[in-house]
Design goal:
Blueprint: E1 8-10, E2 12-14, E3 17-27, E4 33-40, E5 48-50, H1 51-56, E6 61-70, E7 78-89, E8 92-101, E9 110-111, E10 114-120, H2 122-127, E11 130-133, E12 138-141, E13 154-159, H3 161-166, E14 171-176, E15 179-185, E16 192-195, H4 196-202, E17 206-216, E18 221-236, E19 241-253, E20 275-279, H5 281-287, E21 290-292, E22 297-301
Parallel strand pairs: 4-10, 5-8, 15-20, 16-19
Antiparallel strand pairs: 1-12, 2-3, 3-4, 3-7, 5-10, 6-7, 7-8, 9-10, 11-12, 11-21, 13-22, 14-15, 16-20, 17-18, 18-19, 21-22
Length: 305
């Protein structure tokens, strides 16, 4: 598949829950074919199967030796078992490594009668050079290159490789009063999140809306409040950098998603800045971004040019 350019599947966009879902098919031990959904999650490094759900719906996997610790940003790590799972996505067959998560995950158990059994992570998308395209809600093989995607043709452009190399996750930069803070570009998230300390330190124009909620990751939850926040996303230009002004609702958390104390360092051992929040799928869908794991760019084409 790495040499093919015609792979494309339609992603399911659910009203009120704008994380993208991909439909996969697989065969159970009795050779019966099943369909299920997986979240297409840019901020999960690994593919994940929700063990009990997968077993309930006839998934057969091949157990591998060893375990792996995984976790959402800011949450405690969870130990998972390792396996390989054979499935079909669109017209392509895959036999891929998965982490088997015991217990449940705070995502719906099904949509329209189709079960949700797991997550496709960014290592899968990097391996097969896939792009999450919010223009037409598809997952497809990267169809751009550094030569045919000019920065001048984009209303927004940020190199995904920076985050993938340093954090293992795609990141963005919010510039506030001359200072840049790091946030994740998280297709699996249904809300924007930002730490209250960042709001305070940066002097953001922020209106607390008063709504209190709890958001949950793979290993835990945290209490948040809704706020309308004005913010500027750093974007590359042909000459230097610029900012794009936005205003959107964020869930304000008491915690960073990834703190310096968690020991994230670059390849030279220098401690990385904390991850103070994330931009979720509803915002990216509204902006019609493309998260392209082939060329490792996040961009929004200027459709009026």
């Amino acid at each position: 598949m790495k040499n093919e350019t015609d792979f494309m599947v339609q992603l399911m966009r659910v009203k009120g829950d704008l994380a993208p879902f991909a439909k996969v098919e697989y065969v159970d031990q009795d050779a019966k074919t099943h369909s299920a959904l997986m979240v297409v999650d840019s901020c999960s490094c690994h593919n994940i199967l929700i063990g009990a759900r997968a077993e309930q719906h006839g998934v057969v996997w091949q157990a591998e030796e060893g375990t792996m610790n995984i976790g959402g940003a800011g949450n405690e790590m969870v130990t998972t078992r390792l396996a390989k799972f054979h499935f079909t996505l669109g017209s392509k067959q895959f036999h891929e490594p998965f982490c088997i998560k015991d217990g449940d995950i705070d995502i719906p158990s099904e949509i329209g009668g189709t079960p949700i059994i797991g997550i496709l992570g960014n290592l899968f998308m990097q391996q097969y050079r896939l792009a999450i395209d919010y223009n037409d809600y598809t997952l497809h093989t990267s169809n751009v290159s550094p030569e045919n995607l000019r920065i001048s043709d984009c209303d927004f452009f940020f190199p995904m490789e920076i985050g993938l190399e340093r954090y293992g996750l795609p990141v963005l930069a919010i510039r506030q009063n001359g200072t840049d803070v790091v946030v994740l570009a998280d297709s699996g998230a249904t809300s924007n999140i930002i730490a209250s300390q960042t709001i305070k330190d940066g002097g953001f124009d922020c209106q607390i809306l008063g709504t209190t909620d709890t958001i949950a990751g793979i290993a835990g939850g945290t209490e948040v409040k809704d706020a309308m926040v004005k913010f500027c996303l750093l974007t590359l230009t042909e000459d230097d950098t610029d900012v794009v002004h936005h205003e959107d609702i964020f869930k304000v958390s008491q915690h960073y998603l990834m703190t310096p104390e968690q020991g994230k360092c670059d390849k030279d051992g220098v401690q990385l800045p904390p991850v103070v929040g994330l931009i979720g799928s509803p915002f990216m869908a509204k902006e019609k971004w493309v998260l392209d794991f082939g060329v490792k760019y996040i961009y929004k084409k200027n459709l009026t040019a």
